[in-house]
Amino acid sequence: MTLCQQFAHYALGQHAQSLSEAQRSALRRVLMDWLGCAIAGADAEVVVALKDSLEVEGPAADGFVLDSRRLGIRSAAMINAVAAHALELDDIYKEGLFHPGAPVIAAALAVAESRGASIDELLVAILVGYEISTRIATVINPGHYRFWHTTGTVGCIGAAAAAAMLLKCDEEQFAHALANATTFASGLQQAFRSAAMTKPLHAGHAADTGVWTALAARRGVTGALDILEGDAGFGAAMGGSPDWRLALADLGQVCNTASITFKRHACCGQTFSAVDAVLKLRPELLDALERIERIDVFTNQQSLAMTANAAPTDPLAARFSMAYVLASALHHGDVGMSAFEPERINDPAVRRLMPRVQVQVDAAIDASFPAKRSARIRIQLSDGRVLEHFQSHRKGDPEDPLSDEELEAKFLASAASNLPRERAVAMLERLRRLEDVACLDVLLETVRRG
Description:
The chain is α+β, with helices and mostly antiparallel strands and 450 residues long.
């Protein structure tokens, strides 16, 4: 069997399986985090413009997070994925350099809502989307990430898997959905090394691609089933001819969905270890910030390449600037959503500190990437003192996870940024008791506007 067929065989087997308590807990966490991110990002400039541009399609039956307008299943998937990715708050599978939630859950939710699926059917679809896509992302990286945005590429495949589950595709149809989603995989790194709005659109394209390829497969549209491993296929063209056996080795045995990184900073994940390190040192520096002469950051090559903008002037660029996020963390004590308001970005004290941040590659740290995300910080003061801290993992990684309480606090902060707090609390209560929620409409009614 081809890889697409083997993934399809695994997926269809999940219909007959009951979710374990560990799986159910992991799925509740990723769904909670996705909803918080999508609610927070629902009014982002790129999301508002995209909604308006798609409204010309006319009304249909599927809605958006935080919106009563209804356009259609593909538009709902696309817009909710863009919203979830817009503020750089969404989850990560670190070994795959991949944000699975934005495209996978957006696609699953759109199809589930349109088909009247149960909560459990939604959760199983999300599980399958995560388990297949995280394995593909892992075997093609880190080489793939040099030029490609994994969320835009592999996100298409994960979204197709989730959508195909909810459409109740048979095994053959499921495999064809994956095959056609793969050939439309796209998203270039250059798009988010500037102030462009394109990066979250990659997640939107992936969710949309997953939905329409699954819908088409359900109607008999076929794809090249060896598109992943073929001589001119995805792996050869975009993944450095990976060892695909690794993608299948523990499929169905190890739950990757339980090993997700949840962000606690609203910026590029490549900065997190360094941000965590300076926050550890900050209590010793509160009376000495003006005496900082130099901040040396030792990190991996990918982090250096992606966060090199030393003087960003807008929120999009600031989220990918090591200099800005470290200076802001030192002065304000956090790098949350408010860190990317114009007042914070233009804070004179922060701007004065930014040129003192110097980033370089550490060979040992680089060699452990992407499985381990470490950083070392050395801060030199004008009085001769030198403060150092080595951060072995990011807070939020599986090795140092956010607790349920910390994840719930993140959800409330994210959701309450765009909802009355009582509605955010009501949503949280439903998520805590997800097994008792009668249907998706009941889960989502607290976040619908109108």
